[in-house]
């Protein structure tokens, strides 16, 4: 039922089917149809659902709208244009919605000028920012093209008067679908589309995406199922139609030998040079703090160059500031803008001729999305530069570059059977009309995200909503629907149902900062997501001092001073992007190939030649990667996709580290390290510390012998889910995620009778409710969902199980080594454990000192010529 569209229709064939006025406007404005347009327009004209994957500036949005505008104008010319919504356009960003409104109104004005009359095709935006006056106007004169967000769509589905305007919707356009499908906003939208279909009848679904994989899965997500069978969808893959000019570069000659001063001066000299050589440069960092730091240092180092022509853009800045930066970029008033992830999606920011990526973007799709912001027109070259600051980043970015050039994209994961999101939609359907629960279940299973939903889980959610857990009423959780078990009919309960629904739905949780206290004294604040990685006894840094975490209550964290203690949770952890699993596997394959070449005795020249041809990198990068791999090979073992290395390292003050070289990405490593540490704590009857990165993790303790291998053997692909479920049971991570799920499932009302409940009060309520639901049932649906979210969305238990299966079937071997100096691949991981308590200069000095010790050990070996 999925079809790859290979036929490219001629301009003449497309224009023949198009309204003559629209055809004249198009040929007068553009030379010819772009590849996505020539593949997609006629399919959409024939009312066939279509997924279009193409880079920014390739004309994919116009691919979706040309057929729609053509049909609407034909109806207008015949006097048959009705007062109803014909097309719903949905995007994840309000800013993108405003761009689309402008980009549709301009062609309509030009078409009216060409026609010499008013065509009467209306376009309007309806989001949370739309005033009541504008909403009322829409009821009197409804837009023919409605532009909205996933959240606003689910609101208008229960608005009685607006629902009537949706009867007969012909098209739904979902933009930036790649950013929605892998999260709960996308799950929410998938059910809204099925509910829309119940109102309107079948409509054509059009998905617009940047480069994404696997396209088949995204297409299935877009169209859903009918009677248990996949609905048809055409896939237009124009993901690599632009020329790519991408390079990996380093600001210093030798990363490992450079001082902090060398790196700092080299980075900003290189940035200034690249910015000066281009008209407008966009710099991506991976964290908000790095964004502010880069802007500050560019201004400080080049005070005459960067004054009013530079800007920062990230999600923590005010909406007004972000809009001002976007507007200045569009108008060409800025030379350079530095951002974190906030400008990745396709809002119109004008002409960018260079994108710089500081550090690894952690996935090929994210790299292409970022560099794709340059060269906005179809025939422009996409120009991007990866600037790397350490050897792990160099290897990572080199493999990303190879995969980007060769079109290998990492896969996204689409969440399945999210019970908290399901609650909102069942409630919304009960509000609109009484209905049979089996009919509702059939509708839910049309969504790709719920196609495998078990009946018992659906009924457990119905039971919760119908108030069958009576003891929850003591915690102010009341029935929201009625469910007649004899007739199997359901319906809404209470006069406030519609108000409660409209003020509490959505999937994005209220986030806040946590106040950190030593007894009654405030000492600072923490990002809430930071608390998800922390457990009782962990040491972290705040304001340059170290503290021991004791407990959290609501949005207050109680700590004790811990001077001189090494942090067990780095302060940067919560902000870092996780490495994609597919990319991690590709890096491991490169490591295996390098080991094969080194073992076979190939010369340095031969190995560097392989690196040049395999990775598209320059001589310096090839030399650095060669030296890095060779040092690890001579000193220890190279871990790769068929070999896990466990390194026992005796650290400072007799501290023992057990380092797992598991380059699987942080989500998999989070699952593996927690499971092993939990088993170890049961064996040794004491707590242990964990630190992890994308490349591996270590377990350490100040006291006694660590029986890590025994604990590791106790974790199997069959029991890791059970172990992790127990391991997270009393942790902050489950408490926080339960609050998010309880908010989505309306156990905790964020807004009630006009009063907003703060994130802190929500958290206190959630902790009380968590205890209550555990007493009711360990399988309570919202508790189940909180656990699923931690294990499947935050961690990656699926691939953790996959790696354990490979170990147990001997497809992956385990090599155990012992070191008194960390192996080269361990240096970054060990140093990052100290990163918060030692200066960056000292961290680099530590790495250089350890590196020199490694070189001294392997000095007896003759280097390859």
UniProtKB/TrEMBL annotation:
SMART domains: DEXDc, HELICc
InterPro entries membership: ATP-dep_Helicase, DEAD/DEAH_box_helicase_dom, Helicase_ATP-bd, Helicase_C-like, Lhr-like, Lhr-like_DEAD/DEAH_assoc, Lhr_WH_dom, P-loop_NTPase
Keyword Lipid biosynthesis carried by entry: no
Pfam families reported for this sequence: DEAD, DEAD_assoc, Helicase_C, WHD_Lhr
Listed name of the protein: ATP-dependent helicase
Natural source organism: Candidatus Undinarchaeum marinum
Molecular function as annotated in GO: ATP binding; ATP hydrolysis activity; catalytic activity, acting on DNA; DNA binding; helicase activity
Domain of life: Archaea
Keywords: ATP-binding, DNA damage, DNA repair, DNA-binding, Helicase, Hydrolase, Isomerase, Nucleotide-binding
Family classification: Belongs to the Lhr helicase family. Lhr-Core subfamily.
This protein's record includes keyword Nucleotide-binding: yes
């Amino acid at each position: 039922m999925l079809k790859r569209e290979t036929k490219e229709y001629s301009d003449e064939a497309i224009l023949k089917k198009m309204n003559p006025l629209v055809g004249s406007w198009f040929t007068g404005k553009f030379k010819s149809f772009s590849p996505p347009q020539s593949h997609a327009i006629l399919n959409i004209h024939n009312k066939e659902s279509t997924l279009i994957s193409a880079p920014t500036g390739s004309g994919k949005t116009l691919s979706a709208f040309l057929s729609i505008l053509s049909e609407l104008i034909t109806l207008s010319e015949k006097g048959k244009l009705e007062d109803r919504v014909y097309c719903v356009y949905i995007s994840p960003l309000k800013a993108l919605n405003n761009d689309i409104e402008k980009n549709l109104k301009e062609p309509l004005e030009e078409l009216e000028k060409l026609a010499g009359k008013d065509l009467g095709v209306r376009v309007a935006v309806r989001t949370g920012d739309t005033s009541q006056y504008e909403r009322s106007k829409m009821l009197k004169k409804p837009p023919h093209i409605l532009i909205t967000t996933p959240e606003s769509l689910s609101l208008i589905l229960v608005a009685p008067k607006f629902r009537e305007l949706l009867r007969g919707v012909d098209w739904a356009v979902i933009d930036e679908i790649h950013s929605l499908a892998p999260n709960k906003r996308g799950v929410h939208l998938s059910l809204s589309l099925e509910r829309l279909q119940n109102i309107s009848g079948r409509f054509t679904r059009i998905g617009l995406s940047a480069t994404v994989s696997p396209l088949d899965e995204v297409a299935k997500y877009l169209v859903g199922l009918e009677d248990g069978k996949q609905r048809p969808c055409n896939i237009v893959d124009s993901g690599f139609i632009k020329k790519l000019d991408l390079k990996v570069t380093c600001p210093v000659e030798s990363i490992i030998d450079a001082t902090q001063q060398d790196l700092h001066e080299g980075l900003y000299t290189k940035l200034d040079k690249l910015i000066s050589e281009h008209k407008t440069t966009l710099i991506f960092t991976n964290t908000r703090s790095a964004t502010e730091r880069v802007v500050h240092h560019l201004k400080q180092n080049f005070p005459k160059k960067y004054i009013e022509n530079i800007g920062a853009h990230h999600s923590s800045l005010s909406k007004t500031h972000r809009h001002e930066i976007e507007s200045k970029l569009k108008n060409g008033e800025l030379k350079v803008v530095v951002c974190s992830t906030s400008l990745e999606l396709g809002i119109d920011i004008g002409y960018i001729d260079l994108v710089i990526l500081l550090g690894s973007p952690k996935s090929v799709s994210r790299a292409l999305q970022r560099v794709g912001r340059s060269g906005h027109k179809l025939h422009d070259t996409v120009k991007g530069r990866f600037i790397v600051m350490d050897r792990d980043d160099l290897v990572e970015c080199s493999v990303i570059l190879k995969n980007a050039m060769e079109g290998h994209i990492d896969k996204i994961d689409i969440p399945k059977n999210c019970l908290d999101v399901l609650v909102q939609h069942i409630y919304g359907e009960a509000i609109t009309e009484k209905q049979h629960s089996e009919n509702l279940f059939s509708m839910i299973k049309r969504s790709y995200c719920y196609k495998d939903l078990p009946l018992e889980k659906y009924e457990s959610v119905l039971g919760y909503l119908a108030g069958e857990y009576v003891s929850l009423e003591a915690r102010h959780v009341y029935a929201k629907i009625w469910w007649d078990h004899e007739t199997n009919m359901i319906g809404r309960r209470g006069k406030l149902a519609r108000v409660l629904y409209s003020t509490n739905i959505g999937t994005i949780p209220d986030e806040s900062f946590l106040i950190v206290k030593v007894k009654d004294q405030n000492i600072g604040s923490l990002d809430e997501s930071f608390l998800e990685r922390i457990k009782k006894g962990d040491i972290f840094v705040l304001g340059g001092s170290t503290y021991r975490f004791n407990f959290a209550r609501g949005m207050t964290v109680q700590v004790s001073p811990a001077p001189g203690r090494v942090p067990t949770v780095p302060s940067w952890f919560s902000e870092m992007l996780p490495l994609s699993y597919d990319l991690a596997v590709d890096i491991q394959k490169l490591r295996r190939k390098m080991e094969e070449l080194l073992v076979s005795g190939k010369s340095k020249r031969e190995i560097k030649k392989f690196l040049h041809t395999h990775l598209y990198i320059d001589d310096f990068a090839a030399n650095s990667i060669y030296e890095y791999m060779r040092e690890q090979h001579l000193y220890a073992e190279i871990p790769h996709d068929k070999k896990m290395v466990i390194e026992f390292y005796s650290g400072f003050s007799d501290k023992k580290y057990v380092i797992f070289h598991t380059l699987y990405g942080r989500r998999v490593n989070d699952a593996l390290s927690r499971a092993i540490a939990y088993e170890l704590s049961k064996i040794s009857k004491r707590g242990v510390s964990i630190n992890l990165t994308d490349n591996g993790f270590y377990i350490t303790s100040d006291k006694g012998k660590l029986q890590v291998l025994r604990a590791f053997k106790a974790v199997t692909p069959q029991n890791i889910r059970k172990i992790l479920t127990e391991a997270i049971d009393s942790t902050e991570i489950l408490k926080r995620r339960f609050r998010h799920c309880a908010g989505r499932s309306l156990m905790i009302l964020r807004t009630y009778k006009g009063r907003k409940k703060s994130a802190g009060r929500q958290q206190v309520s959630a902790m009380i409710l968590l205890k209550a639901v555990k007493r009711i049932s360990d399988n309570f649906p919202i508790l189940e969902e909180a656990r699923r979210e931690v294990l499947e969305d935050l961690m990656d238990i699926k691939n953790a199980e996959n790696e354990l299966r490979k170990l147990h079937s001997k497809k992956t071997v385990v090599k155990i080594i012992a070191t008194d100096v960390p192996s080269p691949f361990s240096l970054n991981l060990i140093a990052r454990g100290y990163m918060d308590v030692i200066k960056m200069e000292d961290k680099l000095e530590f790495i250089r000192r350890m590196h020199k010790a490694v070189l001294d050990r392997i000095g007896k070996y003759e280097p390859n010529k």
